[in-house]
Specification:
The chain has 125 residues and is mainly beta. The chain is built from 2 helices and 7 strands; from the N terminus they run αβββββββα. Helices cover 13% and strands 46% of the residues. Strands 1, 2, 3, 4, 5, 6 and 7 form a 7-stranded antiparallel sheet that branches. The C terminus is likely disordered.
Length: 125
């Protein structure tokens, strides 16, 4: 008969992992309201209101800039999203804008470094 090598004393509770920011769910929005305007065949997103990840570990908002975020009736999309992190480990994510391009069935994600002026704006949000 073999004994379990790991003692339960060394198991890290899920709540602690979440508070340390090691839960990848803080990078997924799960609740909130998206405001948009319909122009032609595209929905132009104008505002995210109270868009949070599970447990409110992250807040998401639209990145300002010359290119508006949109989605069309075929599922094609172009979005620029920023995050406000409430945990220390993922705080580095605030330095980037997440760009989502392609189609809703097969999106492509890119990280773009924010300029210093954009970071100041992010701190105010």
């Amino acid at each position: 008969m073999r004994k379990n090598v790991f003692h339960p004393l060394f198991a890290i509770p899920g709540e602690i992992i979440l508070r340390l920011g090691l839960d990848p769910n803080v990078l997924n929005p799960v609740t909130g309201t998206i405001y948009f305007n319909l122009q032609g065949d595209k929905f132009y997103m104008t505002k995210f209101k109270d868009v949070y990840s599970e447990g409110r570990g992250s807040k998401f908002y639209l990145a300002g800039g010359p290119n508006p975020s949109w989605m069309d009736f075929e599922g094609n999309l172009s979005m620029q999203v920023r995050m406000k992190q409430y945990n220390l480990i993922f705080k580095i994510a605030e330095l980037f804008t997440v760009s989502v391009e392609g189609n809703i069935k097969k999106p492509r994600y890119n990280l773009q470094k924010q300029s210093k002026g954009s970071r100041r704006e992010a701190i105010l949000n």
